Amino acid sequence: MAYPGHRIGPNGETYNPTLKAPKEINLEQDCMVLNTAMKGAGTDEDAVIDILGHRTLKQRLAIRDHYKATFGEDLIDKLTGELTGNFEDLVQMLLKESATTKAKALYKAMAGAGTKESVIIEILCTASNKEIRDIKRAYVEDPSRTLESDIKDDLGGDFERLAVALLQGVREELSEEQMEKLKRQGIQGILNKQLVSKDVEDLYKAGEGRLGTDEGTFIRILSTRNVWHLQAVTKLYEQKTKKSLMEAIESETSGTFESALKFTLLTCLNRIEAYATLIKEAMDGLGTADSTLMRIIATRCEVRADLVDLGNICQLFEAREQQSLEQRIREETSGDYRKLLLALLGSRWQE
């Protein structure tokens, strides 16, 4: 069962998808359309977009299975031979479980010389307990390795400690009964005020209230407490110290650990803002971090488990940037890749 807390925002708002997909599909017809699109010279990319850009993951996986049963070929392999570039990558992503996509990204981030810490932060610092479990199961590129062992081999110091803590997937989650209480009474109805006060005191003593920093206390609290508890901790911390918890982290930590800790906290306080920030950063500066952009859009565009908030991300992006995400994507991307991204956003993609 999906954890309901990830379908409801910290202020009780419901998260919304962007994907426009029919409730029922004709598997045979969809497979025939895709097969016809790949026949002869060239490929009918619009036909591919019209199908894959308007189907849920469950429907897309069923199409992949039915295609193999009908034509004796894996749909991903067939499309890979027909498509190129970012369009090919996004199509492949849409035909795999999101955990597989994220596990593959983590594997690549730690493969070879150097480590792409930004990918690790993007995926691990934003993940729910269920996502963590699914990603760990999907991390099977090399049977002799695990995600945790690779994290320990590639990272170091406090960033490694935080990543390993997040990988345990033990953040507190509310029961159905507590969620109902939250809806009726608001955040005060579910808070353990004594624990909130203790966490504020512990965080202060671990950072601003001492010489040096006890990073372990920050890791423990930020990787295990539920999002509403951390919202209350942040508010009380600022009331008592006249400084925000985010500012305290900035002054007490540094480097990649600081970035990861801040992003973990931001995700807990406002997950929509965290993803809007990731999307903005992916398109800022020279070039576009296409892997990040397509990962977020592909995995958060539909009502599926706890991945259902792209509609809200679009709203916040537009409010902050004074430009819609659709318009920004039209400016930053091109061709069939742009069309498929727009389809997943529920936008007019054939223009």
Automatic annotation (TrEMBL):
Pfam families: Annexin. Belongs to the annexin family. A pair of annexin repeats may form one binding site for calcium and phospholipid. The keyword Calcium applies. One of its GO terms (molecular function) is calcium-dependent phospholipid binding. Involved in reproduction of the worm. Involved in host-parasite interaction. Delivered into the host cell by means of parasite exosomes. Binds to acidic phospholipid membranes in a calcium-dependent manner in vitro. Causes aggregation of liposomes in the presence of calcium, but not in its absence. Likely to promote membrane fusion. May provide structural integrity within the tegument. It comes from the Eukaryota. It is found in: Host cell; Secreted, Extracellular exosome; Tegument. Keywords: Annexin, Calcium, Calcium/phospholipid-binding, Metal-binding, Phosphoprotein, Repeat, Secreted. One of its GO terms (cellular component) is host cell. This is Annexin. SMART domains: ANX. The keyword Cell membrane does not apply. Homodimer.
